[in-house]
Amino acid sequence: MPTFTFLIGSTDPEVYSLTDDVERPDGNIPLDRVIELAGQDPIWANRGKAIQGYAQLEYSLCRLLEFWGDMSNVTASTVFYKIVSTSARISILEKLLHRKHGSTFNLFWNSLVKELRQIDTERNEIVHWLSAANSILNDKNVLLVGVTLIPPASVGDNQATPLRITSKDLNAFEKKCDEFARLLAMFAAVCKPLEGFTPELQSTWRGIFQQPLVYPLPAGHPLFQMPKAPDSQPQSSQASVPPASWWFPVPWFPAP
Description:
Blueprint: E1 5-8, E2 18-23, H1 31-38, H2 43-68, H3 73-80, H4 86-101, H5 106-128, E3 130-137, E4 142-150, H6 167-191, H7 199-208
């Protein structure tokens, strides 16, 4: 069984993603068919992508530990991923940031931490909440099925407006983690400029990181001009950021 429990009767169209287009004049919902369709729901892949997005954000935080702690990537990764408390990680990074840069980036950092705490809360929900198959017959008695994530405490509790996470929510979380991972990569570059980070870029981004973070980022934010493909090359001298190959400058796997 791909889902933990069943919910019947939600009228929110956002919940449903699958149907078999079979009319059922008897008005009965066949649970075996619900189970079969639920296993095909895109939420399973979206949940994995959301977790991967969070992992990329963690790696960008690890890069900050590397730069601010004057460590090699291997040493920073060894230390960072042994610290399971996200609040402890943030506290350590904050102390290293102040040691390196004083109060220069306080406005940005303080607002960033608030967002990171919310992201951690959402990550815990995505990982620990249970799946639930939602099913309903529409006005033509055609079965509609969709899977959502629900808090374990809500199982058997018929709330009027139940808490849930949909595929749309997971996609939004993945997007947010992606943007914050790239934003932190640029923050690291301001703190320790790398090859390809011109004085003009340094000045632009340093100004950004001396202001409070406002999220969602505005449409014209320089981050959105950053190419994402790992093998991208600098497109022109007018590019607002370094090539995306700089985003993760350390190879995922050691050279043979």
